[in-house]
Amino acid sequence: MDNVKHLRFDVAVVGAGPAGISAALAAADSGRTIGLIDDNPAAGGQIWRAAYNSARLSASSIWFDRLNKSAVQIVRGARVFHAAAGELAAESDDSVIQISYGKLILTTGARELFLPFPGWTLPNVMGAGGLQALIKSGLDISGKRIVIAGTGPLLLAVAAYAGKCGAKVIGICEQTTRSRMARFGLNMMLIPGKAAETLRFAYELRGIPHWTDCWPVAAFGNRRVETVRISRHGQITEIECDYLACGFHLIPNVELPRMCGCGLRDNFVAVDEYQQTSVPGIFCAGEPTGIGGVDLALVEGEIAGYAATNWEDRAKHLFAKRARFQKVVRILQDAFPLRPELKNLARPDTLVCRCEDVPHERLCEHTSWRAAKLHARCGMGPCQGRVCAPAAEFLFGWQIDSVRPPLFPVRCSSLTAIPPHSAARN
Amino acid sequence: MSESVAVRVNGKIVTVRAGSTVAVAILASGATCRASVTGQPRSPLCGMGTCFECRVTINREPHRRSCQVLCEANMEIEANG
User: Fold this and answer.
1) Element (H or E) spanning B30, and its range?
2) Strand, helix or coil at A367?
3) Closest approach of chain A CAs to the CA of B73, in angstroms?
4) Cβ pair A36, A16 in contact under 8 A
5) Nearest-CB residue to A138 (from B24, B50, B55)
6) Cβ contact (<8 Å) for A386 and B44?
7) Which of A288, A315, A333 is the last residue of a domain?
8) pLDDT tens-place string over residues A415-424
9) Do A130 and A152 belong together in one domain?
10) Which of A12, A20, A225, A371 qualifies as a cystine partner to A366, CB 3.0-4.6 A?
11) CA A296 to CA A191: how far, in whole Å?
12) In this complex, is the C-beta atom of B13 within 8 Å of any C-beta atom belonging to chain A?
């Protein structure tokens, strides 16, 4: 039934966020054929979501403009579900795409870490970035009461954005301590180019309460969230809201790099100074190599793009710039470590795996992620553990060790389109 | 009138800004996206195609992630009530 397409690129880039766009453009300087493959309806990744067709964001519009004028072939709405040596398979709405490549650059970005607490499965409890993505996708939140919770700089960005879009942001619940938060602000001011951004956020967030040492304990509501109970400096308060936007910073999307055989270091993709992974010819840039934000992603992408097209001297010129932004990685690590109290939010009946509705008490019976999967079906649903595995890693200290094809649920016809020699590898 | 697009969510006409995703139309309609395996109502969590909580049936095709699909005129969306 499905149409099978074949594409061949000298350099294939997976993920069209800032790192992917910058990698593709740098690689395109060589005159080779470049493919930029992305799952979303438009390029831009999460930070530049829905900015592709609007001129509002000037930083991104320069990149989109360059991309449109380049020879880079963009393959939108295609999610890569399989990888073998020199080959990828992706599925789109109406076809299976077999992609062969000479070099591969993985710019798969990051996702939010979600931690279970009673009520976190209620409709309108969503990620902080999740709410922002939905607003960018057209959700009207004017006049809505929003509580933003969790940890990390994304909370500030989302609060500022939601406020600009007309929401009533009741408060930001930041689990880290007041002193770590203050140090974060100071450290960011010292990074060239980040001071203006930090001050802009401070200005945009004026009037929005920002509570440190504060986290959600439970959410309540009939069919959707109506009240959130928060702990703030040890005191419990209840707040009425229309949305609870809650995310505990970011975790890297390393599933595809792992399927490609790339080695990890501390849960991130290990790369050398040219952004090359442990697999020769496969490069990685942006959040999968360390959570450092858009500026670091852009420069890492550029280095990867040049290195993948044998332009090492051009790549080398960017090392100093990268080093400057790499400081952000350590600043973020220092500022937003998760406090142990968050491990105790889930009650016995709180669901951890939302796909298979597996409660916390069913996981307590097991001693490993693998056992929890086999016996409780945790992580066996459509998201394939993308939500619950990182939570289980934090809650139970389990090592999450398996990545299997297909990387996403796909149509049977897509599976049968994979050449047998390549399917057999895994 | 190209600035808005009308779709049907559980038979009810919902008008959203052009370029909106199906998830947005569902939230605007007041419906939730899916019923979980134990029957709980669910709506988008991640907003970026990772969590699969926003799955609905679009034009009779089940298991579509509504946060990754743009609304098109006259789309028929079947979501959890």
Assistant:
1) none
2) coil
3) 15
4) yes
5) B24
6) no
7) A333
8) 988 876 654 4
9) yes
10) A371
11) 12
12) no
